[in-house]
Amino acid sequence: MVYVTVAGVIFLLDSVIKFLVEHLADGRKRVPVFGGKMYLTKYHNKGAFLNFGESRRVAVRYVSLALTAGCFVVFVVTLGRKGKGLLKLGLSMMLGGAFSNTYDRMARGYVVDYAGFSSKWKRFSDIAFNISDFCIIIGAMLSALSRAEKKPETVKAATAASGKTDRESPAS
Fold it and tell me: Rounded CA gap, 104 and 46, in Å?
């Protein structure tokens, strides 16, 4: 249940921020925050990541919907398995972010982005994000890291194959 809550909180938090940005922010202004390291703004992203596919908005909508549905299926299947906490957390973060951005694409026709990083490189400074984008990226990294998690059965099998017991020290 905690993983469903994580996805829901991400979706709700990002949705509230997007609502506020849409109704209160001026898209022509950048408001510096955190000592100028970041800025707040309003940007309507009509494509996918970095506006990729902006000229094919309908295709981006349906690809986004398909990827979100695929993530949802993997999430539901994974929820029924014991363990795999890191994978479940990663999938829940990806799903919360994907739901929020896909909802934007379907309901508004664009994704509301509202934060960016200040940089001496103008191209990097011009990129705007939202919380969902960060959650998707972090969730993907956690899911990938979960593949490196040692499973108890694997550790036991490796110990048995080496002929050592759990109590033997590496020096013996």
Answer: 10
